[in-house]
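Hi, here's the filled form for the chain we discussed.

Project: internal
Contact: R.S.
Residues: 349
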Amino acid sequence: MMNSFRHLSYERSLNPGKAVFYYRTDSSEFEPLQAEVTRFRGLKATFSDGYMASGTARAKETSDLGFSNPIMLETCYVPPLVDTVYCRFSLRIIANSLEPNICDNREARKALRELSDAYRSLGGYHELATRYAKNILSAEWLWRNKVARGIVVEVFTSNLKNYCVKDVQYKEWGSSWEGDDLKSLEGLAAEFEEALSCPQKFLFADVTAKIKTEFCQEIFPSQLFVEKDDRGNGSAARQFMKSTMSDGRQAVSFGAYKVGAAIQKIDDWWLDEGAEYPLRVSEYGADRSRVLAMREPVTKKDFYSLLNEIIRLTEEMSKTRQVSSNAHYVMSVLVKGGMFQKGIKKGEK
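And the returned structure, exactly as it came back:
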């Protein structure tokens, strides 16, 4: 039955905006943190500079490797005498995982709806909501910028509630949450759960990280992918994502995709005994640091294999009154959203 559809898609439930870097002064609440262009002479140091693909040394004078390559890159540093930088984004949460946005098979749509109903009735969304809230409050979305002297995360929601967690630079995926930090985590997770599981509800969250910085500390925004052919004369080889203000100034930023990727680093179900670190939710469990897929089709733990098992997963939840790790994973992919129709590669039948 689950093999009979040709079109299936879910709208994403988590919709982050850009995360913008800025600082404050005595006269301004928002001064954009700006990039600058740096030019320098880079040494020839790549493998291909000295060797051919076969591993044979290139037949040229050693002195050639002493020449420099002119390089132009965008960089970003905290201005002198500024000791605090802020990074802020907004998040919209909508209950889009309850049923498909597009599905051309009535029985498949019914099965998917029954899966989400069973998952919701057993509190499955609470587990996902807690994991999303944990990544937000622990500032995972700051990526390399999380290495700082001190970070405070504040969240204000459209339900007129606010949460604050201090010293999050020390919080990791396996960290314990206690006291006021635990109250903030539980409160934000409860709001997320309601927005994810109730079609009549939606939630906006305004998230700000306050980062204690050192003198002229380097900041790492999102890096744009720039094709060599797209580079104009005098343009930097490395460029950052930016948000333009009404006065024309630009603030370095994280792209919404990168913010969302950090929030969705919750898949530690890819190992039966529980993984030591979470992956960003994806159909094949891509681990970019290892350049591997932890949920290859041969494992039968990838999303498409489990999609064919949703009737069994639903029956299992109804019988045991418990949510399995596979059910959590499948629902996390549906929360992520995407197009899941079955295409055929060229040359295949």
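Let me know if anything looks off before we file it.
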